[in-house]
Structures are given as structure tokens and as C-alpha cells.
């Protein structure tokens, strides 16, 4: 049989068969004097088995193990591993669907796919045009997406959401947008922000920091110099686990 004939027989493409030759999965058959490959019934049986195994979800390396004579694993062993892998994928898919159902039920704030806990927290926040408040919201959304924030942190933040004094602090931070880094308002504002943080929030922050290394530098870069100094001092207070 020529390659087109055996391909039609076993339900594969000639391209797939040539690929199997290229990766060493199927030995090259003998060639006739005219250069055409000559396939046997044994080759057809082997290709049919390859097709069945790949349709079951096995990768080519796993198929090679199955086809190997003595060095390969038993087919039952490979299939058992495949079944376990499919079970894990099914469990992960189920978890993702449950997560999606929670997001849909919570009604993500302004289209943002946040957790139910953060959605409930943001729903209680007063309307404000403060750029600093908007930044805090974005940072919370990021921490929520990475799993660095959770229900304990949101519960600790709840009193701040309804505290009118917090908006005043955001406005004071906004006023530092064009100030120098030695502005005398920096220290008092940092102290006021740290004093406003509930004690329970410190307990909700992981001891090794809430996010990956480099996050602090990236966060500070979003602020003007004087604002960044205020935020730096507040973050330092969190690292120390106490108040300035």
C-alpha cells in the first residue's frame, strides 16, 4: 500500500503519518525503486492503534510508551493515568463553574469580575471622584484576583467604607499630587491613614506580604512623589505590623 491508501484505510491524513515518521513513532517503511513508501498490513494495524490511543487523549510520548515492546508501560496503566488526569480536569472545570456562578450571583461591580466579598464591600462604598480612592479600588481588585485578599480582609475594611473621614483622607492625598517629597503634610497624613486602619486589617495581611516581590515598587510608581512617600510610609507600617 502507498501512503495515500493506508491513510484512507485507517482514517488518518498523509501529513499525520509523515509526522509520525518524523518523530520516530512509526518506522519508515521500505521504499520501492521509484521512491514510494510501501506499507504493510502490520503498518496499518499499528497506525490504527495510534489513532485509537490519540483519540483517547494520549500524547505522542504516551503512545510511544504503549507501543514499545518491553520498555513501554502496559496500556491499562497509561489509560488509568489518563482517566485520573481527566478526572482532575473535570474537577477543576467544576470549581471554575462554581466560581463563575458566584460572580454572576453577586453582580460584579461595574462589570468587574470580583469575588462576592469584594463586590459586597464595593457596593457599600460612597460615590467619589477622588483619584486616590479609585487607585485603592483598583489595587483591591488586583489583590482579589490574585487571591492575596480575602473575606477576613474585607470584613476588616468594612468599617472604613462607611467612614466619612476616609474620604477626607483620600482628598488630602489628592492634594499632594503636585507637592515635593519634603512637603510637611506628608508625615501627618501618613500617621492619619495608619491610625484609620482597623487593627483586624493588620492581622489579615500575610506576614510575608500580600503580593509578589516588585509589587510595592510598581504601586508606588503610580503616584506622584509626595503621594508615593505617604503610601510608602503606610506600607512600612504594615510590614512592621504596627502603627507609626
TrEMBL record:
Keywords: DNA-binding. The keyword DNA-binding applies. The keyword Glycoprotein does not apply. One of its GO terms (molecular function) is DNA-binding transcription factor activity. InterPro entries: DNA-bd_dom_put_sf, MerR-type_HTH_dom, MerR_fam. This is Mercuric resistance operon regulatory protein. The lineage of its organism: Bacteria, Bacillati, Actinomycetota, Actinomycetes, Kitasatosporales.
Amino acid at each position: 500500500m502507498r501512503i495515500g491508501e493506508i491513510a484512507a484505510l485507517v482514517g488518518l491524513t498523509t501529513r499525520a503519518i509523515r509526522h509520525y515518521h518524523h518523530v520516530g513513532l512509526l518506522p519508515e517503511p521500505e521504499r520501492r525503486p521509484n521512491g514510494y513508501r510501501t506499507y504493510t498490513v502490520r503498518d496499518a494495524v499499528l497506525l490504527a492503534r495510534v489513532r485509537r490511543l490519540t483519540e483517547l487523549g494520549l500524547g505522542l510520548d504516551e503512545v510511544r510508551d504503549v507501543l514499545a515492546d518491553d520498555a513501554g508501560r502496559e496500556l491499562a496503566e497509561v489509560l488509568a493515568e489518563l482517566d485520573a488526569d481527566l478526572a482532575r480536569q473535570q474537577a477543576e472545570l467544576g470549581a471554575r463553574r462554581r466560581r463563575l456562578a458566584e460572580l454572576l450571583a453577586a453582580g460584579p461591580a461595574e462589570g468587574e469580575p470580583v469575588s462576592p466579598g469584594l463586590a459586597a464591600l464595593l457596593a457599600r462604598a460612597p460615590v467619589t471622584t477622588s483619584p486616590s480612592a479609585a487607585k485603592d479600588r483598583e489595587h483591591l481588585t488586583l489583590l482579589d484576583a490574585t487571591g492575596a485578599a480575602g473575606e477576613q480582609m474585607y470584613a476588616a475594611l468594612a468599617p472604613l467604607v462607611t467612614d466619612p473621614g476616609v474620604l477626607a483622607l483620600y482628598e488630602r492625598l489628592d492634594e499632594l499630587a503636585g507637592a515635593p517629597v519634603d512637603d510637611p503634610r506628608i508625615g501627618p497624613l501618613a500617621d492619619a491613614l495608619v491610625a484609620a486602619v482597623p487593627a483586624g486589617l493588620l492581622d489579615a495581611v500575610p506576614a510575608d506580604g500580600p503580593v509578589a516581590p516588585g509589587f510595592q515598587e510598581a504601586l508606588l510608581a503610580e503616584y506622584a512623589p509626595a503621594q508615593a512617600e505617604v503610601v510608602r510610609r503606610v506600607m512600612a507600617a504594615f510590614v512592621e505590623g504596627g502603627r507609626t
